[in-house]
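Morning run. Coffee first, then this:
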Amino acid sequence: MLRAFLNRYPRLKSLARTLSRPVRRSGVSANYVAVDASTVASVGRDLERAWQDESIPLQQRALVESQLQAYRRGEAIPVFDTLINALLRLPPPMRTTLLEIGCSSGHYAEALAARGLDVCYHGCDYSEAFIEMARRCNPTLSFDVMDATRLGYDNEQFDIAVSGCCLLHILDYPAAIAETARVAKHYAVFHRTPVFHRSPTRHFTKQAYGVKTIELHFNEQELVRLFAEYRLQVVDILTIEAEWRDADAFAMKTYVCRKVSA
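And here it is:
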């Protein structure tokens, strides 16, 4: 399957031959190390371009190609189903145009199409390599290179803005929330967001696809208050997975927020 995909894109095939950081056998994410609060800013600056590494898109796409094929066969993929179920609960007139922030290769657009969701999809990501791949994989859709904390779109340009599993990698997450709220007309969705129920927001470094990155696990109350600060009212919460970790309830959740008038 991967070989067939690479044969369609010679440049990516060439990149695959030169990859020097293979995915660790323990999974996509490994080697979590807590970051001391006094060094968060400096560590964040050092790793702020991590997800722009050109080795990541090919490795991630190999994973999602398998998931997409299974999804098209009708199999359940929780991360796809969660977002789609969240969108299906929204009134159809309010989900005509959708922006995915942190779209990677645009695979969620393909998942939406597999389930027949009729939305005008637009994607953006701060990685040029991911956007190049997104345009190759989805040539009829529109993609831009954009920073989630400084989006170049108009106010309320999209009916729905989806922060697609990128907030946890953004040190200035209040700015990313503010921008998501600004470009959303009706709803903002924060998909695949890791939260603790009682612990404060915590920062970690980890290996993602063999690249050292930073990841945040949020305090849920702080996050909900931030949503409210930017006129986002939580109307639905979907839990993808949950466990007991470090004497606290930890979960990966998707938050659906309605844009509230000023």
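The longest helix spans residues 56-72. Good start to the day.
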